[in-house]
Sequence to fold (613 residues):
Amino acid sequence: MIEAITIEAFAELSSNDREAYILDRTQLEDFWLIGHVRYHFEEKPFFFIEQLINPYTGVSLEAKIFNNFSRPLSIYCRKKAADKPYEDGTMVAAKFNLTESNNEIKKGHILNTILDEVYPIRDSDEIFDLVGMNKEDLGIIALAKPSLYKDRKSRFIDAANIIKTKIKDDIENLDLKIDENQKQLLYMERQEERLDKTKQNLYSLQQKLEELGFVFDKQPEVQLEETEESFLDTPETLSELLKGIQTQLSVRGYHYEEKTLRQILLALMTEQMIILSGPSGTGKTTIVKQLASIINAKYEIIPVQPSWTDKQDLLGFYNPIRKLYVPSAFLDCLIEAKQNEDKLYFICLDEMNLAQIEYYLADVLSIRELEDGKLRLYSDFEYEQNMNEIRWFIQRMSQEETLEIEEALRKIQMDSLAHYEMVTRFENLKRYSPVLNIPQNVRIIGTMNVDGAVQALSPKVIDRSFVIPLYRQESEKVASVSKIGQYDISAQYFTTNTTETPKFSNQLREAVKDIQQELKNWHIEYNERVERHILLYYVAAKNLGISTKQLADDITIMKLLPRIHEMVDDEQLITRLIEVVERHVKDELLSKRKLEKMQQRFEQTGLYSYWSC
Fold:
């Protein structure tokens, strides 16, 4: 173990040396700790995680970290001032970072985390999942029962030593240590996120000032020349891209199973809406951000508000008094995507079920079904009225009637408020026309937390979406890489060509038909739209070469089972459904495990529902 130094000396170390020092002094294998939530000041926008435990040894962090600082370590976590995400004393696991500010370090504020990286511990299984251990390692189950290790002479210490040895061997075998280049990349990603946040704040401020009548000169965009060396070599096949994405996620510290990534990639290629459902903290929003980073796509995270009641909350609205369109982040992202057709755009509606989805998303869902559908923002009559007023103003102020509106407004030598107003209105009309196509390079992704009491989605939403359930992801062995970075993947890559009118394989058609026939006993009917979505998924999957049983499993869990939400009196209905699904998915587990969880909830509540677990 490294010899203890003063906290002042620690503050002067480089970030890499700080990490190495903390890991060694605490005997941690990774940046995970377990502790108890404490609210010292409930009105403040933060709380602490104290009584820290090493999850790899089961031993409390009692070692003296610095030779001139005796206060026990704790983890600082910000929250909303009025919120209380966990009860005082709740046992949690937290993935932490080291504080970068020297002044904060000297005050003793060494460890910090964010709310999304804090997970409540209800049973020992969750500890196994979070720290990436196998249940066969045992011993660590005692972490969920503090009474077992109050006595340092207890049998748990012996078991913990076995665990510690086992984890060290596994880490050496898998070669998971992050090198200097990886750490530098993570640092650059954090800086980029902060820069994007600052840009968004400045853009919002500029919009508000423009609404008040201020006009800003358009700054020329700086084009950064990208060399081929900026990107990883593009994989030749979809299968290689899938494995490459999983590897890039892993070296960034995010572990997703290949089957989950497969479903997301293939669903993206169908160009339909995707809904990621699952318990809180399973990485639904994270996968959107990280996948966009890896394939060089753009993304916009839009938190849905419970107060949303119509399309204006999603798209913005026309202000008839100021005669300007007031846009939303969703609309601005659509417009940006239209101007960059080669770039893929993800629009993530975070926690989309906080409001009634049909209320605010109905227009978008309907328009995407039409071949040349357009979103109506405001009336053509209002647009023409605005343009006529601007033309009238130009005629009054200018003698040159042949000039285009934009050039005429620029040549008018006038700095009156009326002039500024007309310029602002014209720029607004140019950007926000009465109707707008949804660009083909946009993918709408919704996330929703499923806690057992969530309201089921309506058939209209389910039929127009691919529903992908996300649970705690198991860490899978991935190939080691020598270079970390991005793939430069164009939007055209994520499209599916169905011009040749392909057909299902006979086996897949039989599987889908049998399951749909069985679900008719549940009064569930499927339309041509669902069949078209299944066909798109089938065509996209042909490039992966996956088996019919895997396809049947994917389609069942994403397109067929989400319609189930019934109070059931005849349990034979459930039994027959399970038998039919098992006959076609064989040894694939996704649909079978989902049906097992639905069965468990049914035995508790009498409700057999896809959305209850």
In short: Confidence is low (pLDDT under 50) at residues 135-179, 218-229. The first helix runs from residue 7 to 11. The longest strand covers residues 46-53.
